[in-house]
Structures are given as C-alpha cells and as structure tokens.
Task: inverse folding
C-alpha cells in the first residue's frame, strides 16, 4: 500500500497529461486550424509552467513535508481540471483560454510527479530497480489506457478530457 498509492497517483497524473496532449493535438490542429508548429507553442507554455512548478517544489520541500507538497499539487491538478472543464464549456473554441487554464494543472503536476515517485520508491529501499521499473510500467499502462479513452470520448471538443482529468485527480 505504501508503494501502490503514490505510484497510482503519479500514474494517473501522468495519464492526464498524455490524454490532454493526445486530444488537443487533433482539436487544435484539425478543429481550430492551427499548424503543428503553432500547436507546439501551446505545449511549450505548459512546459514553462511545469518548470516553474518544479522550482516551487524545491522551495516548498525545504520547509514542508513531502506529503504536504504532494497534496498541494493534487489540489492544483483538481482545480486545473475543473477550470479546464468550465473553460471548455464556456469557451470551447478558444485555444488560448484552454491553454491558460491548463497551466494550473501543469504547475500542479510538477508538485505531484517527483513527490509521488519518491514516496513510492522510499517504500521499496531494497528493491529500487524493481520499484522504478514497476512505476514506469504503471505510468505507461495507465497513460496508454487514458489516451485510448480520450480518443473514444473526443468529439470536436475537450470537455470529456477535462472530465477525465478531474476524475483522475
């Protein structure tokens, strides 16, 4: 249990990212008419916020427990998912607004990934290699399943992806 729950948290959060990226690639390019290069700029914005979140995580860990930082990240992921759902309902065809609100989730992911992985691997000190391999496998498996689900649910908007993100978070 000490390994599985943090590994599951990390994997579901990772799956959220990949389901969003897989759906928005089609939505932004085919639905909204952006080029692949233009779409890459939207993804770059998310990456910048992930980097800011990583820097913030380092700062938080100097003064707070890892579980506290992880919980804060999960709250940001939930908030980002809810915001993405609202925005994709109110402004369904505005890539700029959608990306702006997805930055909340992206920032929160930076508080989740390293801390959930650390908690999972700390519970297997004698089997770090196996623990790390299992974590990567779980992340890939759940991400793949969430991408498939996003593909089935995608119908010219990302509302269902937002529902998946909130549900996973």
Result:
């Amino acid at each position: 249990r000490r390994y599985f729950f943090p590994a599951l948290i990390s994997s579901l959060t990772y799956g959220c990212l990949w389901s969003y990226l897989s759906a928005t690639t089609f939505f932004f390019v085919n639905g909204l008419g952006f080029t692949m290069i233009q779409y890459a700029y939207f993804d770059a914005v998310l990456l910048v916020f992930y980097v800011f979140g990583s820097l913030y995580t380092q700062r938080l860990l100097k003064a707070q427990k890892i579980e506290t930082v992880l919980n804060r990240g999960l709250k940001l992921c939930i908030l980002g998912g809810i915001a993405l759902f609202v925005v994709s309902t109110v402004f369904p065809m505005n890539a700029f607004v959608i990306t702006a609100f997805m930055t909340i989730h992206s920032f929160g992911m930076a508080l989740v990934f390293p801390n959930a992985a650390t908690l999972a691997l700390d519970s297997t000190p004698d089997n770090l290699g196996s623990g790390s391999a299992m974590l990567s496998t779980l992340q890939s498996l759940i991400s793949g399943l969430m991408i498939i689900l996003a593909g089935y649910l995608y119908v010219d908007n990302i509302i269902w992806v937002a529902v998946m993100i909130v549900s996973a978070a």
Notes: Residues 73 and 111 are 5 Å apart (CA to CA).
